[in-house]
Amino acid sequence: MSESFRQLLRALPDFPELLPDFDPDAAPADPAELFRLWLAEALAVGVPQPNACSLATADELGRPSSRMLILKDIDADGWHFATSRASRKGHELAANPHAALNFFWQQQGRQVRVTGGVVELSAEASAADWHARPGADGSDNPDWQLYALRPREIEFWQARHDRRHLRHRFGPESFS
Length: 176
What we know:
Elements: H1 2-11, H2 31-44, E1 52-58, E2 64-70, E3 73-75, E4 78-84, H3 88-95, E5 98-105, E6 110-120, H4 123-132, E7 144-158, E8 166-170
């Protein structure tokens, strides 16, 4: 049974026949601008919810966990996401304010990984985000918190059929 499952997994297709080109030398110098470009391209080809990403956090002992959420914005404060301070994510961020976001657009063979420190944004920004959610009923949620991940590293990854995948990395020097 185990060998047949392994064979099944190995036989699954990975990326579509046609993948977009990516020339790191021609990429924008600003990683947020490159992300917006890739997001627009994902939208143009019909990638569902290209703003969805995995958020990885760790507790005070370094034990990791991850879950999917929605990117809210990118600005000078960082890459925005929100959750309840009373949630597991909220507790982990309070104990260990570092995280990673990972976006994956299979249809284009692309990933974007963003790592860095996380800060809480203002109570006003958090309340505005809560009230802007689909289905908002006008009630307040004092536990709702808007966070910003301040990048330490961003990596853009483009799959290639020859397995010579392209990695375009922005390190700490890009964010000073």
